[in-house]
């Protein structure tokens, strides 16, 4: 990239705002990322050499023109100007390493000098033991003071390709915050871990509601009693609560409800005993963004083993890769076993929910799959 090209980008400014996700790096020897540090065996030495070669290319970038020169592809649609304390007006430049698909962020001044760069991003630590990472695009980026120190921080949500089928959609989100300090930025890996482990990465508002405002969905997974859920703001759907005798687990109350955070309704179902203790929990919405409408919950034997299973049918919403709102119908079946409940995977491979699905029709289809009917 010639110098005049870089200045033209800087002067013309806002070329689209949609932010690529960041990968965390740890240390192996000097500066080796956590994803590589996890490697072991006969390929570990080769991987370390590959990382050293990659690191040399990254460290050699001092000007905007060096970015493509060192085999990093600038994501042109995500390049835009921003004003930051001490730096003044700078250019935000995300780029992907052409060889390993690792994300890097560069800040450049009006003379195209790189005044800050980092590849220590959460999305660079998705594939453990590998240099190559699944970065695909930036879902959102925001510049705001998150920690109240008067300095502008960077809030990022990156999209990654679902290469290992850990999610139901083709891509998934990774969120984090780069906190401003006197020289550059730093990241708090503990916050990044919670943002992504508890799916608080759905939007910029979701991330800032956690990091800045102190709200969190973590209690949905750690609470031990129904009272604790209520104290934290969980809203129970009382009209859908009922007691059932589960053959392997005793008499339990089915307790569905939501926790609202940053315009999202996080849907959970709990099984609570007569003393008010939670003995099992379910998250039917998985990596959907929001519960749109609950169509029904039923406790009936689905697989013909004489034990009551749990079927959930609902409509959920999420943003697709084009940031368009999508509303879809989906279901989950949880089979009762001696040790608790286990989510169905076999029937789900065969049948995908449609908007016209009813609970009774879904139960009949699932029972037919198991070769029986009531």
Describe what this molecule looks like in 3D.
The chain is an alpha+beta fold and 374 residues long. Helix content is 21%, strand content 35%. The protein has 10 helices and 18 strands. The protein has helices spanning 3-12, 34-37, 44-59, 66-69, 189-197, 204-211, 219-222, 226-231, 346-350, 359-369, and strands at residues 72-74, 80-84, 88-97, 103-108, 114-118, 135-144, 153-161, 171-180, 185-186, 235-236, 242-246, 250-261, 264-272, 278-282, 290-300, 309-319, 325-337, 340-343. The strands form 4 sheets. Strands 1, 2, 3, 4 and 5 form a 5-stranded antiparallel β-sheet that branches. Strands 10, 11, 12, 13 and 14 form a 5-stranded antiparallel β-sheet that branches. The termini are far apart. The model is unreliable at 1-30 (pLDDT under 50).
Low-confidence spans: 1-30
How big is the Rg? 24 Å
Tell me the major beta sheet: 5 strands, antiparallel
Spatial separation of the terminal alpha carbons:
70 Å
General form:
elongated
Mean pLDDT: 88
- The number of helical elements comes to 10
The helix-strand sequence is: HHHHEEEEEEEEEHHHHEEEEEEEEEHH
- Class based on secondary structure composition and strand pairing: alpha+beta
């Amino acid at each position: 990239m010639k110098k005049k090209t870089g200045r033209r980008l800087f002067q013309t400014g806002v070329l689209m705002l949609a932010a690529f996700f960041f990968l965390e790096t740890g240390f192996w020897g000097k500066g080796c990322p956590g994803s590589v540090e996890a490697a072991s065996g006969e390929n570990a030495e080769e991987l370390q050499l590959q990382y050293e070669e990659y690191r040399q290319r990254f460290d050699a970038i001092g000007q905007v023109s060096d970015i493509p020169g060192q085999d990093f592809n600038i994501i042109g649609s995500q390049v835009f100007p921003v004003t930051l304390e001490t730096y003044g007006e700078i250019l935000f430049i995300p780029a992907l390493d052409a060889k390993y698909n690792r994300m890097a962020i560069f800040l450049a001044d009006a003379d195209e000098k790189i005044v800050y760069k980092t590849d220590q991003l959460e999305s660079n630590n998705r594939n453990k033991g590998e240099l190559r990472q699944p970065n695909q695009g930036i879902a959102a980026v925001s510049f705001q003071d998150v920690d109240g120190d008067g300095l502008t921080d960077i809030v990022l949500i990156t999209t990654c390709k679902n290469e290992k089928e850990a999610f139901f959609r083709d891509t998934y989100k990774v969120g984090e915050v780069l906190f401003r300090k006197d020289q550059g930025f730093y990241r708090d890996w503990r916050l990044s871990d919670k943002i992504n482990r508890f799916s608080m990465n759905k939007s910029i508002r979701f991330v800032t509601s956690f990091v800045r405002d102190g709200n969190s969905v973590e209690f949905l997974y750690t609470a031990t009693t129904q009272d604790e859920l209520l104290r934290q703001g969980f809203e129970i759907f009382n009209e859908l609560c009922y007691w059932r005798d589960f053959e392997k687990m005793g008499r339990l109350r089915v307790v569905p409800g939501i926790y609202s955070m940053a315009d999202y309704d996080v849907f959970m179902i709990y099984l609570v005993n007569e003393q008010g203790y939670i003995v099992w929990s379910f998250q039917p919405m998985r990596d959907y963004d929001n519960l749109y409408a609950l169509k029904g919950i039923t406790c009936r034997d689905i697989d013909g083993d004489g034990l009551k299973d749990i079927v959930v049918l609902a409509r959920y919403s999420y943003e697709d890769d084009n940031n368009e709102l999508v509303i879809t119908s989906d279901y989950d079946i949880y089979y009762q076993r001696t040790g608790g409940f286990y989510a169905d995977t076999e029937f789900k491979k065969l049948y995908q929910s449609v908007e016209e699905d009813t609970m009774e029709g879904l139960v009949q289809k699932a029972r037919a799959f198991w070769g029986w009917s009531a």
